[in-house]
Amino acid sequence: MKLATLQTLMAAIEEGSLRGAARRIGTSQPALTKMIRELELELGTTLLHRTSRGVQATAQGRVLYEHALKATRELGQAVDEIHQMNGQMVGDLHISAVPVAVMLLIPELLRTFGQAYPEVRLRVSEELYVAQLQRLRTREVDITVGGIPDELPPGEFVIEPLIQTTMVPTARTGSRWLQARTLADLQEARWVFTGAHSNSGYARLLFESHGLKTPPVGAVVNSTLALLSLVATGDYVGLMPSQIASHPMALPYISVVPIAERGYPLTIGAILRSDTVPSPLLRNVLTHLHRAAHQVGDAT
């Protein structure tokens, strides 16, 4: 089974047509059709459903596609790492980051790292904590920058702390909940929880840390935009990093509830898988993240 043959199958599945796949890899349609047919004969199974509208992967084709995708990705990473070991910083790196990291750390990382290594392609996606860890586990991202929770499985990840933040309660400007002076005053408010379900999120941890009952769940979101939109326009309370709550773009719409208790303290750090040795490229990204964090610390 040749890599080039697997790449033709991948192209056909991704393009949804043999003509599009042939155009993409730079060969004729009959030649591509022959390669896929030979692969099907080798495996003794049908890999593609052919219809008048194009092609679709069979169940067997989908299994082969997923493994081929992983294999080609890892081969590409191996080639990049060999170049990096030889001093040539090239390749791709995918970073997922929580909003406060996107706001405070990522711009400086892109500036300094981009100047030092212009041939490296950095991809940044903004995500909340739960989605980050899942994508890190499945190797869809190389590194995540987010809140470091207490319940991380021991030994699964390598953690490098970067900056500190405090999750503070916020409400719409003019909201009645801004009159609250203690956390207990907010127990009857409808809260926006962040995470995959109502049992997750920092709001629950904040109330539990003060020996209080978890407040009613008004909504559960896994998006910063949804959190901001609900809090800014509805009768909700939600926890946000203090740096986002006090940002000039947010100030006209939301305010920090002035309760006596301190908000929920949170360490933002870089999280990597522990089962892989960081590449030279990844180690350099970590160095630039620490520089960006140091600059944030100096500014505050």
Break the fold down into its secondary structure elements and pairings.
Blueprint: H1 3-15, H2 18-25, H3 29-43, E1 48-51, E2 54-57, H4 59-85, E3 91-97, H5 99-104, H6 106-116, E4 120-126, H7 129-137, E5 143-147, E6 157-172, E7 190-194, H8 202-209, E8 217-221, H9 224-233, E9 236-241, H10 242-245, E10 254-256, E11 264-273, H11 280-299
Helix pairs in contact: 1-2, 1-3, 1-4, 2-3, 6-11
Domain HTH lysR-type: 1-58
Family: Belongs to the LysR transcriptional regulatory family.
Protein name: LysR family transcriptional regulator
Question: Could you write a compact summary of the structure shown?
Answer:
The chain has 300 residues and is an alpha/beta fold. The protein contains eleven helices and eleven strands. It holds the Pfam family HTH_1.
Structure notes:
It contains 11 helices and 11 strands. Strands 3, 4, 5, 6, 7, 8, 9, 10 and 11 form a 9-stranded mixed β-sheet that branches. With 300 residues, the chain is α/β, with parallel strands linked by helices. It is elongated. Helix 1 (3-15) crosses helix 4 (59-85) and helix 6 (106-116) crosses helix 11. The model has no long low-confidence stretch (mean pLDDT 87). The protein has helices at 3-15, 18-25, 29-43, 59-85, 99-104, 106-116, 129-137, 202-209, 224-233, 242-245, 280-299, and strands at 48-51, 54-57, 91-97, 120-126, 143-147, 157-172, 190-194, 217-221, 236-241, 254-256, 264-273. The longest helix is centred in the N-terminal third of the chain and has 27 residues, at 59-85. The chain has 2 domains: 3-84, Orthogonal Bundle (Arc Repressor Mutant, subunit A); 89-300, 3-Layer(aba) Sandwich (D-Maltodextrin-Binding Protein, domain 2), CATH 3.40.190.290.
